[in-house]
Amino acid sequence: MSSVFGELSAYPIVQAPMAGGASRPELAAAVADAGALGFLAGGYKTPEAMYEEIKRLRGLTQRPFGVNLFMPQPSAADPAAIAVYREQLAGESAWYETPLGDTDRGTDDAYEAKLALLLDDPVPVLSFTFGCPSRSVLEAFAKAGTLTVVTVTTPAEAQAAEWSGADAVCVQGAEAGGHQGTHHDDPRADQAAGIGLLTLIALVREAVRLPIVAAGGLMNGGQIAAVLAAGAAAAQLGTAFLVTPESGANTVHKRAMTDPLFTGTELTRAFSGRPARGLVNRFIREHGPYAPAAYPQIHYMTAGLRKAAATAGDPQGMALWAGQGHRLARELPARQLVDVLVAELEVARGPAGSEVRPGVVS
Q1: What is the pTM of this model?
Q2: Angle, CA 139 vertex, CA 24 and CA 205 arms, to 5°
Q3: How does pLDDT run across 105-119, given as a tens digit for each residue?
């Protein structure tokens, strides 16, 4: 994996694919041109919109990049529970003067159509979240020359990815912002704290031989050095890049990362029906305890509310996805942020450590 990443990027740093607009082509291009690996988020987009972003990115950089897809979700949500939650959100609908969204919109995120486009016109790297593709799908992308990465949150999920033929795993610790990339959404596990990143890296290294991309609350070069020392081949950062000028995240969301009003994060189903880590705000406090396990139905139901809150500049009604290290966010241009991260990584490794230089990932 070290040699593979050496071909893809100069440094062992990956910009996380953040669905919802943050990971736009301008961000991925700036990161890639700085020597790291930029990513586009294919989730929540139509196949056509995804492909248009890929074309835009190719027009902005000649460097390799990645695309992330969401796996299809089972239609196991309880319609009665969804109906009860809709009633609970009636007050939010009235307050923001916007109707609640239609929940009957399918659960596959146009997965097959997106696969067809990416096989017809391959990208360098393709990652998957919320499950693991079949062996035949991963074999097809291997033949197309695409490196495949599967997001995992447990050793068992890593073993499933290895058996299916993935080239690498993105090991996501409980500290990560946004959705937990679990392969199966089990409400019975909601009270569990999840596995921290460093422990999870060790467990996954014992379980599989696949290279590891480490993700979860990473914000600076010292933390990157720690996960590399723990055995990861690269570090994936999301919240750190969310506040950059090139990010497509809403300005209100960006400001909230370091706003002292928001003192912590929490895993919640309030906005999407699936556990996701965000800054604790009024919406999470009032609705999080009652949100059902119903993804993506709740995501569609609250979409209009979230957009209306953002338009109104109201962070209390928005999904402010953030990792546990959000207070360490730095409002730097993406290219400069990569430079700073690399410099911090070199310092953290010290004279006895491996020098971080273009083309080499230790």
Answers
A1: 0.94
A2: 75
A3: 889 999 999 999 999
